[in-house]
Amino acid sequence: MKNIMKEKNKLTTREELRSFFETGDYPTENQFAELINSYAHLNEFNFGLSIRPSGHTSSKYYDFYKADNVMNSGAGHKIIENSSGNIPAKIDGYSHILSRTVYYKCLDIKLIGEIDIEKHKPKIIIERYKQRKKMPSGALKPAGFYQEKMSDAALWNRKSEYVIEANETVIDIDPIHYFRPAANFKEFLPSGSISRPGSFKYSKYRKPFTVIQVILEININGTAYRSRPVGMKIILGSSGENDAVNFAFN
Known about the structure:
The chain is mainly beta and 250 residues long. 12% of the residues lie in helices and 41% in strands.
């Protein structure tokens, strides 16, 4: 019988697993465990997310800026958290256009399935809907949902993934950062969108909205698996102070 020492977290190959059960071998308890743990149980693939807006309304005060030269700025706008009554900071290359309190909902997240937090290391992945775009190479990137690189998301004070530490939790995605500001709160547009008359307006109240989808990612034996996405709209509140940024699910 072969005595094969394994590095921690290193996957066992099929050939090594077979070697535990060759004629005349007496597999040990650890080797049986290694065989079982090398494969995913069907129950582990029956997983997903339950999401709803939180009952509690949060609020933050923000200063909104627009780049003086959008094409050469690298970031066409900035949204910076501040405290009410403070003078907005001066930022080279940007003009302050608005300051106000924004009320918004967080997301109540519940994991579905037999998910072990320590074993499966769950993450929430956020993909933004992006319009068709011509790349510097000349290639046309089709419209669709894409996960931002962490560094790109950070440029806009967003996050594209969240580590989950409990089967039920609340996530604050700071939803105002998914919008491009204007001097009039009602005229905000999805961040990165092309301005088209009448586009990205929700319901008869014509509230601006942006579209994302949320995915649960878990790790099984070193391989990442993702759930079906949960699609939703982030809907901007009206100009009223108490109309919170909220979510509508597809």
